[in-house]
Design a protein that fits this description.
Domain Peptidase M24 C-terminal: 545-603
Strand content: 15-25%
InterPro entries: Creatin/AminoP/Spt16_N (IPR029149), Creatinase/aminopeptidase-like (IPR036005), Creatinase_N (IPR000587), Pept_M24 (IPR000994), Pept_M24B (IPR033740), Peptidase_M24_C (IPR032416), X-Pro_aminopeptidase_P (IPR050422)
Family: Belongs to the peptidase M24B family.
Largest sheet: 6 strands, mixed
Protein name: M24 family metallopeptidase
CATH topology of the largest domain: Creatine Amidinohydrolase
Domain Creatinase N-terminal: 21-149
């Protein structure tokens, strides 16, 4: 009945293969005159989701998370992950080969400085590192008599016998009705931000997709094309993309405003620009160090700065916002159908984490407009829910019984990208669970109801979501919210709600609101909606104010709430939210689900 077409549940980890692979890599060191090598989880664009051919960290270590870094020396190695993966990494790697370390406690550069032998030569692939990353290592190694060496060919590629080929997904033109702005207007806007430079290198495929109103199919779950582009201050932009990705029709459409060149021509074009003494702007967060050095070596000047496209891309226009709202109504109907079905089926004792994930994807596909999921579904029961970025596999798949089930999922529709998390209980919720769940919900409501002056950044709102957990001596180790693109990445910057969110929140930005709590070995709770920053008028106020519009539509599990912990204002917000969910979704669901939804969205103090 149910099946998954956009995700697999095969075991991603293969730590049993790590020992011979590590041995092969170390044998390569001797040929390259190296004593170690840096292995980021990255491709040439610093993407979150990478093509199979760029999964070097996973191939070597067995770690399947979306962020990590390994340092390999001749006699020891370490892998570094953030708070999302500290539990997961231990279950996926062989810790006799790689020491698992929390990157918040020790940075890779510091570890290398402490462990590399005097006179060591440490290799790195300049195509998968930015200049800033290499500078951090260089600074950490000052006075240590340890040299960083850029390699011509990644030694992992040399020993990876069955490495997949580079992807050749087809590039498509993104419809104007969804883009809401022409390429001409976007390029004019970008060029206003290019003062003092001769050209801009577009190295982030998301920025490239937005600027040229295109989408691609090179990586899972995010419709981007792996390509670069060079935008001169005056003149025709050049898109460096494999022509196999371009149909005659799409190429003809693009050549109205750009020229197309093979990817291998980019380095030479940068060298020619350098020889002319040009200054080129590079995105410091994504531009490969190798391309920056190609320009500099030829006599050009590289200006490393924030991507000038990131902010305009983050501030959605009216067409994009309208599309996102429609996508969330469609998605909310599918998720609500799933939640109603799940409540009935879970009590029968036959569901598993995989079958639940397959069912949710099927409900979304039945809407007829699903292009992909926006990330692999986090379908987690009991102790697995305590792993924030848990990925179910055939070997980890738990049967769902009485207890806590967390599902974090999202969809890609042509008009929008969704990301939503709900935590539900199968059976009765314990007093402890209700307390923890309600504290997370209070934090979620605090963000949803927040009103703040123009210029406020996410770092100033982060504590709103944590206060009620802090009062009980609790916290969580991930940010409260990330930006979201429109039929692009489910994780978009520069906006975010976190301790490190320094970008001011502007009307039109879309962010997640997802506080959580994780009790290791027992359960996890996360409650996530997407919100849009909007202007907010305060009667008698003296400042220009902002607030949030919640666009995700799905009920929260009232069985997990301790009503006595809610204030009047919080209960009113929840009741109003549920009333809107009921009113908006009821016409889109069947009669049985409508009956379930009426009960699921009853007033919290009834």
């Amino acid at each position: 009945m149910f099946e998954a077409k956009f995700q697999t549940f095969a075991d991603a980890s293969h730590s049993d293969a790590s020992e011979p692979r590590l041995k092969s890599l170390r044998a390569k060191f001797a040929e390259e005159n190296l004593d170690g090598f840096l292995v980021p989880r990255a491709d040439e664009h610093q993407n979150e989701y990478v093509a199979p051919c760029a999964e070097r960290l996973a191939w070597l270590t067995g770690f399947s998370g979306s962020a990590g870094f390994a340092v390999v020396l001749q006699d020891e190695a370490a892998i570094f992950v953030d708070g999302r993966y500290v539990l997961q990494v231990r279950g996926e790697i062989d810790d006799k080969l790689f020491a698992p370390l929390d990157i918040a406690e020790i940075q890779p550069a510091r570890w290398l400085a402490e462990h590399a032998a005097k006179g060591a030569r440490i290799g790195y692939d300049p195509l998968v590192h930015t200049c800033a990353q290499i500078e951090r290592f260089t600074k950490a190694l000052e006075g240590k008599d340890v040299a960083l060496v850029a390699v011509e060919r990644n030694p992992i590629d040399a020993v990876w016998d069955d490495r997949p080929p580079a992807p050749q997904g087809q590039i498509s033109v993104y419809p104007a009705r969804h883009a809401g702005a022409s390429v001409k207007s976007k390029l004019a806007l970008i060029r206003k931000k290019m003062e003092g430079v001769d050209a801009l290198l577009l190295s982030d495929p998301h920025s490239l997709a937005w600027a040229f109103n295109i989408r691609g199919a090179d990586v899972a779950h995010t419709p981007i094309a792996l390509a670069f582009a060079l935008l001169p201050a005056d003149g025709t932009p050049t898109l460096y993309a494999d022509e196999a990705k371009l149909s005659h029709k799409v190429k003809a459409a693009l050549e109205k405003f750009l020229s197309v060149a093979p990817p291998q021509h980019l380095a030479e074009d940068l060298r020619e620009a350098g020889a002319r003494g040009e200054t080129i702007l590079f995105d410091s967060a994504t531009a490969p160090a190798k391309l920056v050095e190609a320009l500099r070596a030829a006599g050009g000047k590289a200006k490393l700065a924030d991507d000038p496209i990131a902010l305009p891309k983050a501030i959605k226009n009216e067409a994009e916002l309208a599309g996102m709202r429609e996508a969330h109504i469609r998605d909310g109907a599918a998720l609500t159908r799933f939640l109603a079905w799940f409540e009935e089926e879970a009590l029968k004792g036959k569901l598993t984490e995989i079958s639940a994930a397959e069912a949710l994807e099927t409900f979304r596909r039945e809407g007829g407009e699903l292009r992909d999921i926006s990330f692999p579904t986090i379908s987690a029961f009991g102790p697995h829910a305590a792993i924030p970025h848990y990925r179910v596999s055939e070997s980890s798949n738990l049967k769902i019984g009485r207890g806590v089930y967390l599902v974090d999922s999202g969809a890609q529709y042509l008009d929008g990208t969704t990301d939503v998390t709900r935590t539900v209980v199968v059976g009765r919720a314990s007093k402890q669970l209700r307390d923890h769940f309600t504290r997370v919900l209070k934090g979620h409501i605090a963000i949803a109801r927040a009103v703040f002056p123009k210029g406020v950044s996410g770092s100033q709102l982060d504590a709103f979501a944590r206060r009620h957990l802090w009062e009980a001596g609790l916290d969580f180790d991930h940010g409260v919210g990330h930006g979201v693109g429109v039929y692009l990445s489910v994780h978009e910057g520069p906006q975010r709600i976190s301790k490190f969110g320094s970008t001011s929140l502007e009307p039109g930005m879309i962010l997640s609101n997802e506080p959580g709590y994780y009790r290791a070995g027992e359960y996890g709770i996360r409650l996530e909606n997407l919100v849009v920053v909007e202007p907010r008028e305060i009667k008698g106020g003296e400042r220009e104010m902002r607030g949030f519009e919640t666009i995700t539509l799905a009920p929260f599990d009232l069985n997990c709430i301790e009503p006595s912990l809610l204030t009047e204002e919080e209960a009113a917000w929840l009741d109003a939210y549920h009333a809107n969910v009921r009113k908006t979704l009821s016409p889109l669901i069947d009669a049985k689900t409508r009956r379930w939804l009426r009960n699921a969205t009853r007033k919290v103090w009834e």
